[in-house]
Amino acid sequence: MSQPNFVPYRPERLPLADGLRRGRKFLDHLDRRRSIRSFSADPVPREAIELAVGAANTAPSGAHLQPWTFVAVSDADVRHRIRLAAELEERRFYRERDVPEWHEALARLGTDEHKDYLDVAPWLVVVFAQKQAVLPDGRSRKNYYVSESVGLACGLFVAALHTMGLATVPHTPSPMGFLSAILKRPPNERPFILFPVGYPAPDCRVPDLVRKPLAEALVFVS
């Protein structure tokens, strides 16, 4: 069994007032974030995707195994194939699946099977979760807390996009196996979330929603 190797960690300890001020500023920044479904076709530089995935790559993960792959797609033909396959699954969901409570929950968002934004957004970033890793020698290694780890990485990815003035919406058509086929991903990976990435369209509108108040999201136990 390999022995752990530790290095010094000395992050800056801020004065209390400065730390709280940063926290308030960060909360205010993120509170302005919204998921959108109306994108501009304006180009987004590749570096922006690299920076966002770099931020995601700092996420904590089970045993630091980082069980994720981010696949970024800008090719219009590939994005269109993804849209067609996604809309096929979405039509089945909206027209055939008997899940009235789920349909009712989505009704206030005004969503349907049409996902034209998958053609419009200049990037589609598909996050794949790795249940096992394939090592350079061909052996497989089990990953741990995969969903939790990939979810944390996706959260940082979304925050990084918002920080750069970009927007997205997590899209999870079910099932998502078509993403593995179109993007030729190996069998040890499964699609986790599809993120269209771009700038909001000039006429972008979003549902008038209110976030859960802190009193409902946080419980102090003394």
Largest sheet: 4 strands, antiparallel
Question: Radius of gyration from the CA trace?
Answer: 20 Å
The average pLDDT score comes to 95
Content of β-strand? 5-15%
CATH superfamily: NADH Oxidase
Number of separate helices: 8
Helicity, as a percent range:
25-40%
Question: Secondary structure elements and their pairing?
Answer:
Elements: H1 16-31, H2 46-56, E1 68-73, H3 76-95, H4 100-107, H5 117-120, E2 123-130, E3 132-134, E4 140-142, H6 146-163, E5 167-168, H7 177-182, E6 189-198, H8 214-217
Antiparallel strand pairs: 1-2, 2-6, 3-4, 5-6
Helix pairs in contact: 2-6
What does this structure look like?
The protein is α+β, with helices and mostly antiparallel strands and 222 residues long. The protein has a single domain, classed as NADH Oxidase (3-Layer(aba) Sandwich), CATH 3.40.109.10. The chain is built from eight helices and six strands; from the N terminus they run H-H-E-H-H-H-E-E-E-H-E-H-E-H. It has helices at residues 16-31, 46-56, 76-95, 100-107, 117-120, 146-163, 177-182, 214-217; strands spanning 68-73, 123-130, 132-134, 140-142, 167-168, 189-198. 23% of the residues are buried.
What's a quick, concise take on this entry?
By secondary structure, the protein is an alpha+beta fold. It has helices at residues 16-31, 46-56, 76-95, 100-107, 117-120, 146-163, 177-182, 214-217, and strands spanning 68-73, 123-130, 132-134, 140-142, 167-168, 189-198. Strand 3 (132-134) and strand 4 form a beta hairpin.
List keywords for this structure.
222 residues, alpha+beta, NADH Oxidase, 4-stranded antiparallel sheet, two-stranded antiparallel ribbon, 8 helices, 6 strands, 39% helix
